[in-house]
Design a protein that fits this description.
This protein is α/β, with parallel strands linked by helices. It contains 15 helices and 20 strands. The longest helix has 25 residues, at 183-207. It binds ligand BES, manganese (II) ion (MN) and zinc ion.
């Protein structure tokens, strides 16, 4: 990952490939953002005019490169759009800084070192810029021969620009205008580094092809990381799942040559007053099973374990940050495949909770693995449970590809989770759980069916899950089917492919719980 430091160096004397400055959209054209005073001065105070002539407006995500003024050690200035200029006396929004830093970091792929002279009014701004840089610089090149050659020859850090289509990520970033001696600034940078590093690891897991990441391999990754960070880990394999009666997870995994797993990660703090459980859908590949998905709907289904990846990353981040809260992560891992041993539409599964479920559609598999994990999590009576899942295409139809839906059995908890998402810059939206949709899940044969009405399919899935949450436990369900995987062009700090969505919401919720601010 990109190495990041806070620096007190002055922009002109700084040795780097580029200096990044911010440009905002003012009422009379682009305006140079605070932090770039020295650069503007070297252009005789005419930088805004120069940028306007070059076509810059200050719009979000816009990148304008220009030669640095004479006397500067860095050869290039990269002006990145911050969007609308904030009101007088108000600073730039954290998310605007994060996105701008991310866009700049992406534009600097292949460079060795860049200095970021973006507006830092407070420690939180340094944290936002750091996150933007570290998340924006991300690249997944493990399967690119060209990238491998470069890394092999020069080492990942010194890679100066790989051949082929992939460029090495920006190797080093210095944030100017921060206060390296200020505790709050240091803490903000350290937090950003821990969260971004784990989030990028979640992206790696999502991007890893399903032939290399089956449930067993995912569990092994979790075991290694848990050991490294002092997290207790327990893996239930097929034998243990059978013994325990986890019919949902076993039923979904039945068609695959790679058996299912339930991974439990326990991070505990001696000072914890609250305990949280995070539950992740971990379908390492969703073919649909016997209710096979048609071509055009299965090419990206390696992303169906993004919920489990987010939960895993959040638990490790909580441990790295030493948060004073207990966090248990449950990864419900299975591969949904058709075969002679696969669950059929019409089969009835006996779930871990004891309920029976008639499987009407084997492509509605996420709720089956989650049901067992939610019930398992409930047995420990945590203060709250959050599950994260690429659960329904219906949620994408409702909210588009960048916003996840939040459902809950408790209005206050849903609001708290939604506000945490807002705070960290993860687009989310509260969704209802209309009671009338519940009867659609009735089964003639079993206690419930795994499919109900098509209309409001995302909400129906939420209603299904609700039945597997223990009495009296606050629970929220994040349906991340849209934002988990970016099929479009990169934007801000979001790359193509796995995005790591929900990691930052979960970490924020854990921080709030640790601070006693989660109700
Ligand atoms: N993994 C899919 C949902 C999904 C779709 C995630 C697109 C990401 C992108 C899930 O397992 C699924 O297939 N859901 C079905 C449920 C239906 C059969 C009730 C769906 O949404 O069509
Ligand atoms: Mn499915
Ligand atoms: Zn699925």
């Amino acid at each position: 990952m990109t190495a990041l430091t806070l620096s007190t160096a002055a922009a002109p004397g700084l040795r780097a490939d580029a200096i990044v400055i911010g440009v905002a959209k003012g009422s009379n054209g682009p305006s140079v953002a605070p932090g770039a005073e020295a650069v503007d001065k070297a252009y005789d105070g005419r930088l805004a005019g120069v940028l306007e002539t070059l076509g810059a407006s200050g719009a979000e995500g816009e990148v304008t490169k220009l030669p640095a003024p004479s006397g500067f050690k860095a050869p290039v200035v990269v002006a990145v759009g911050l969007g609308a200029e904030p009101d007088k006396d108000a600073g730039f929004d954290g998310e605007a800084l994060r996105r701008a830093a991310g866009a700049a970091a992406r534009a600097l792929a292949g460079a060795k070192k860049a200095a970021f002279a973006l507006p830092l009014a407070e420690a939180a701004d340094a944290g936002a810029v750091a996150e933007g840089v570290l998340l924006g610089a991300y690249a997944f090149d493990a399967y690119k021969e060209s990238a491998k050659e470069t890394k092999g020859a020069k080492g990942a850090k010194g890679a100066k620009g790989a051949k082929g289509n992939g460029k090495a990520p920006l190797a080093e970033a210095a944030l100017l205008g921060g206060k390296p001696r200020d505790k709050a600034y240091k803490a903000a940078i350290e937090r950003a580094a821990a969260v971004s590093e784990e989030l990028n690891r979640a992206r790696d897991l999502v991007n890893t092809p399903p032939n290399d990441l089956d449930p067993e391999a995912f569990a092994a990754v979790a075991q290694t990381a848990a050991k490294e960070h002092g997290i207790k880990v327990q893996v239930l394999d097929e034998k243990a799942l059978t013994k325990g009666g986890y019919g949902g997870i076993l039923g979904v995994g039945a068609g695959s040559a790679s058996g299912p797993r339930l991974v439990k990660l326990s991070y505990t703090s001696p000072k914890a007053k609250k305990s949280l459980a995070f539950v992740g859908k971990g379908i390492t590949y969703d073919s649909g099973g016997i209710s096979l998905k048609p071509a055009g709907h299965n090419e990206t289904m390696k992303c169906d374990m993004a919920g489990a990846a987010a939960v895993f990353a959040a638990v490790v981040a909580a441990a790295r940050l030493g948060l004073e809260v207990n966090v248990t992560g449950w990864l419900a891992l299975a591969e949904n495949m058709p075969s002679g041993s696969a669950t059929r539409p019409g089969d009835v599964l006996r779930m871990y909770s004891g309920k029976t479920v008639e499987v009407l559609n084997t492509d509605a598999e996420g709720r089956l693995v989650l049901a067992d994990a939610l019930w398992a999590a409930s047995q420990e009576k945590p203060d709250a449970i959050i599950d994260v899942a690429t659960l329904t295409g219906a949620m994408m139809l409702a909210l588009g590809s960048r916003t996840y839906g939040v459902m809950a059995n408790d209005d206050a908890f849903r609001s708290a989770v939604y506000e945490a998402a807002e705070e960290v810059g993860e687009p989310a939206w509260p969704m209802p759980m209309p009671e009338h949709l519940r009867k659609g899940l009735d089964s003639a044969t079993a206690d419930m069916a795994n499919m109900g009405e098509r209309m409001g399919g995302g909400l129906v899935a939420g209603l299904f899950l609700r039945e597997f949450v223990g009495e009296g436990i606050a629970w929220a369900h994040l349906d991340i089917a849209g934002p988990a995987f970016n099929e479009g062009a990169p934007f801000g700090y979001t790359p193509k492919g796995g995005t790591g969505t929900a990691v930052r919401t979960l970490v924020r919720v854990a921080e709030l719980a640790a601070a006693g601010e989660l109700g």
